Amino acid sequence: MRYLTDRKRAVGKGAAHTGTEDHWYMTVSAVALAFLVPVFLIVFGRALGQSQEGVIATFSRPFPAIVTALLVVVGMRHFAKGAQMMLEDYTAGTTRKVLVIAAHSVAYLVIAVALYALAKMTFLGIVLGAMN
């Protein structure tokens, strides 16, 4: 029979057993966002005030589309993980589960809508470019 004390079970692990991994994930995604947000603001700032065709032409180019996609995916994953960590700290039971699922669902919905919009702009950019 193996007997573990409370201390033996807890050594090296947080309450959820993923504290260090969560911390590193949030740190890495925050650093990535620190680089992506200024680049995206420059790209978005150049497109701001243009006509619809100008915005489509801007975001149908590879660099702005990739920067935007990366920002949305990394940003929403960062949001979902941060919301999950907060909800795990301040809620319990079924409420916790429902709210964590809702936070992840919102994040993935935003990712899906943004990637769809980028794909549609890329397709329209190709079509409009072929017409000219």
TrEMBL record:
The chain crosses the membrane at residues 24-44, 56-79, 99-119. GO terms for molecular function: heme binding; metal ion binding. The keyword Transmembrane applies. Its cofactor is heme. It comes from the Bacteria. CDD domains: SQR_TypeC_SdhD_like. SUPFAM superfamilies: Fumarate reductase respiratory complex transmembrane subunits. Its main location: membrane. Signal peptide: none annotated. Keywords: Electron transport, Heme, Iron, Membrane, Metal-binding, Transmembrane, Transmembrane helix, Transport, Tricarboxylic acid cycle. This is Succinate dehydrogenase hydrophobic membrane anchor subunit. Part of an enzyme complex containing four subunits: a flavoprotein, an iron-sulfur protein, plus two membrane-anchoring proteins, SdhC and SdhD. GO terms for cellular component: membrane. Pathway: Carbohydrate metabolism; tricarboxylic acid cycle. One of its GO terms (biological process) is tricarboxylic acid cycle. It comes from Paenirhodobacter hankyongi. The gene is sdhD. It is found in: Membrane. It is a multi-pass membrane protein. Membrane-anchoring subunit of succinate dehydrogenase (SDH).
